[in-house]
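FW: tagging you since you asked about this chain on Friday. Here's the raw sequence from the shared folder, copied in full. Didn't touch anything.
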Amino acid sequence: MSTEAAHLDGPVADRDGWITDRCSLDRAVRAVGSRSAMLLIREAFYGTRRFDDFAHRAGISEAVAASRLRELVAVGVLERRPYQEPGTRTRHEYALTKRGRDLLPVALALIQWGDRYLADPAGPPLLFTHHNCSAPLRAGVTCEAGHEVPLGEVGVAFAPNKLNGSDLSSAPTLSEGDQTANY
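HL: got it, structure written out here
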């Protein structure tokens, strides 16, 4: 069994010295991490726009679909747009926002993980390709220089950012009595 893990650099290496109450993964999972939310996002990637189609194609109840669609609109993944067919009342459809389209690599990575580890014996049900050249799509982790980066080569450090008007490019100083810093 491999014990490969990311490299925790600098003050981050002291895992007991900080907590992750500002964790981006936690926030992302809270926003879009439910099964029903991900299935609705999948359907939006496939071009679904109308409420009834979302509920039917995702295989969820209308109540769950309504709740999740509201949540996805609230976090900016989908936008709600009015439409009206002749002779009917105004209804709404849903469209991906930039924030929603930016979830494509996440969804594709989950699909590929499912294809690799959870597919039926017959194999994956769908093949995702680059429409322009027909090459299969592949999700992965690369650095800005274009290198593929396995887990054992991932470095983790505190990000330089602004919090309460202060630059936190290094670990914060703990006030007297504090045991941990919050990130």
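FW: The two ends are 31 Å apart (CA to CA).
HL: agreed, and Residues 38 and 46 are 12 Å apart (CA to CA).
FW: great, closing this out.
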